[in-house]
Design a protein that fits this description.
Elements (H helix, E strand, L loop, with lengths): L4 H6 L2 E7 L6 H10 L7 H4 L9 H14 L3 H17 L2 E8 L11 H16 L6 E9 L4 H17 L4 E7 L11 H9 L3 E6 L5 H11 L3 E4 L12 H9 L3 E3 L1 H6 L11 H6 L4 E3 L11 H12 L3 H11 L7 H18 L1
Parallel strand pairs: 1-2, 2-3, 3-4, 4-5, 5-6, 6-7, 7-8
Helix pairs in contact: 5-6, 7-8, 9-10
Bound molecules: N6-methyladenosine-5'-monophosphate (6MZ) and zinc ion.
The site of N6-methyladenosine-5'-monophosphate has 19 residues, from helix 4 and strand 3.
């Protein structure tokens, strides 16, 4: 049987690359704008309309506007709670959300209350019967300074303890056209020293020198996007070979790349190359709200574009369990859940 919407929804899934604020749904956006007394009639400025392309600049303008709506702890609680419910409804059984700690003087929200609020929403969801495990990655924004990055790592260490291990890692994200990833190497090393995992946006746009430096000096646990990893430096495929040799999993965000035009068309997406050589890849949404997608939709696009069967999609989803930032007990639990569900859906 061929792959259809129903199959992709029923497939149990792992989501490892989802930015909290970029994952806001239209209905949460409506509620939050109502709470602030803003008239919500501006969807195209906050989220891409389906199948409409733009640029990375457009996406970053949208994040800025979404941040204006989530500028207080009530809103941060609501968005976290709703995003977890959205993913649970889409049959995501294990979710690693990532977010950049943010302070907002207008509402007296501090980075501390921001992180505590996100953790509280995660904790409250865990006491519901949602059948989803949620972990948190704190993000370093490449537009910020090394000091800010070190502060983020410190918060991750402190709140990993306080949250009983809900925080699992550190991300590097933010506008890839700004800042330099290598500046944050001391923060990445500090995170590793404390046993935190690293999921870094690398090569979302061509940046071979910083990509190779970061890869060699810290060897991240996963790479976000990796769109331009196949570039040569001095005629040698150093970067690609390094990623292959070290088997660093790639977080694949197809709709995000096509919409921001960092990849020209689904047919040309680098997923095909890496998948065909058997490299670890996991299908992700990036920002399901801003890019008007869902993880089920991303699986469907992969199947449609690259002619993957139900069995192949199931494998793709099952193998993603290997790349999560949680312990072997959690992996075993998820693997047995997948096996139980397999006979019902494949
Ligand atoms: C499109 N590709 C992308 N490339 C790089 N960084 C991205 C991104 N998509 C999202 N973010 C990062 O996530 C933030 C929003 O979520 P949080 O406020 O952290 O929850 C953005 O401001 C940006 O720093
Ligand atoms: Zn991302």
């Amino acid at each position: 049987m061929s792959v259809n919407d129903e199959f992709c929804r029923a497939l149990p899934k792992v989501e490892l690359h989802a930015h909290l604020n970029g994952s806001i749904s239209e209905s949460t956006m409506k509620t939050l704008t109502d709470m602030k007394g803003i008239k919500y009639d501006n969807k195209p400025q906050l989220m891409f309309e389906k199948d409409r392309n733009g640029t990375l600049e457009d996406a970053f303008r949208m994040f800025k506007m979404i941040h204006e709506v989530t500028d207080n702890t009530d809103a941060v609680y609501k968005i976290t709670f709703d995003v977890i419910h959205d993913f649970a409804k889409d049959n995501v059984k294990y979710l690693e959300l990532r977010t950049t700690p943010r302070s907002e003087p207008s509402s007296s929200m501090t980075k501390t209350t921001y992180v505590e609020t996100v953790l509280k929403a995660i904790n409250d969801c865990a006491s519901e019967d949602l059948d989803i495990i949620v972990r948190l990655i704190l993000a370093i924004d490449r537009r910020h300074t090394l000091d800010v990055a070190l502060e983020t790592v410190q918060m991750a260490v402190k709140y990993r303890e306080k949250s009983n291990g809900v925080i699992v890692g550190i991300d590097l994200s933010g506008d890839p056209k700004k800042g330099t990833a290598t500046d944050f190497i001391p923060a990445f090393k500090e995170a590793q020293k404390h046993g935190l995992k690293l999921a870094l946006h690398l090569a979302e746009i061509p940046a071979p020198n910083e990509t190779l430096d970061v890869l060699k000096q810290v060897k991240p646990d996963r790479i976000g996007h990796g769109t331009c990893l196949q570039q040569d430096i001095g005629g040698n495929k150093h970067i690609e070979q390094f990623v292959i040799d070290k088997k660093i999993p790639l977080e694949i965000c197809m709709t995000s790349n096509i919409t921001t035009m960092t990849v020209e068309g689904f047919d040309n997406h680098h997923f095909k190359y890496w998948y065909d050589i058997g490299h670890p890849c996991t299908i992700c949404t990036d920002d399901k709200g801003v890019f008007t997608t869902s993880i089920s939709e991303e699986y469907k696009i992969a199947a449609r574009t690259f002619e993957l069967s139900r069995e192949e999609l199931w494998e793709l989803s099952y193998n993603s369990i290997n790349y999560i930032f949680s312990n072997n007990d959690t992996k075993t639990l998820l693997q047995s859940k997948w096996k139980d569900l397999k006979t019902k859906i494949v």
